[in-house]
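Predict structure. Chain length: 340.
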Amino acid sequence: MAYTTIDDPEAYFQVQKYTGNASNDHAITLGGDTDMQPDMVWIKNRDSETSSDYHMVFDSVRGATKHWRPNVNEAETTDADTLDAFQSDGFRIDDNDKVNTNADKYVSWNWKESADAGFDILTYVGNHTSGRTVAHSLSAVPHWMIIKNLNSAEKPAVYHHKTASSSPEDYLMVLSDTTARYDDLSFLNDTAPTSSIFTLGNTQGISEDGSTMVAYLWRSVQGFSKFGSYLGTSNVDGAYIHLGFRPAYVMTKRTSGGTGGWYMFDNKRNGFNGSTGNIALFAHHESLEGAGTTVRLDLLSNGFKWRHADNDHNGTGTYIFMAFAEAPFVNSKGVPCNAR
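Prediction complete.
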């Protein structure tokens, strides 16, 4: 029986905390046992919620120094003194206070682009034409997509294959706000993505004529990543979500039954199961760590379970999730991992 195709998740995804020092050439080395040169780095200041400390997304396809900010609607920015290099086991930052304020605490989520690990990054130029197709290199049908117009203040658009029980391609979600899903023909032209292409509608956010877009595509990989949905329970003995691995990172979003934020959790910031609570960050907002309600979430050997009732993540409604592994529940040799 094949339990996983990836025994070492650290080769493709790692969470890394660091402390700023306001100096140039500050090398952030990933703490895993495996070296990994990331292709996508998402950074958040955990200590500050000022306008200069929004979420920051960098990737190797656009090149170092270029970033966009998921929680606001704005064009891409180039700052030579932010992240200026992707290195063999991490990245290097300069003295910009968005990523390197002295003594401030940061977290970074780091992905390696790989078809085997189910992650592809691409750019394309919009032409404002419905029905146009864009080729990708995922070699599988994508389960989660984020598309951002880099040249104008358009909202980051999100597709998730469990946004609806049928025809999820009909629905758009927005990374920068708390709105629930909504039906939008101009997003993906009501056309399901395939293992080689996705289809565009004519919305400015993904198809503005002459503008460059960046797209991030993921698919579920057994034992490493999973993109699914669950029903909330509205009580503290909350929903259990089976993943098939011990999660390093979980993001959730309410899609029906009301609005809700994009909650982000990871295994480096949130303490251990049974502690006073898990500290969420929010992809849609610049709030500092712990600014919102303390959320109790158990990270288990084979999934996660809510120990808290809240409409944003465990109320009466449907939620999507995106999760990446710390370790597979059982590796390819049949050896199980342990709970935290």
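Summary: The mean pLDDT is 91.
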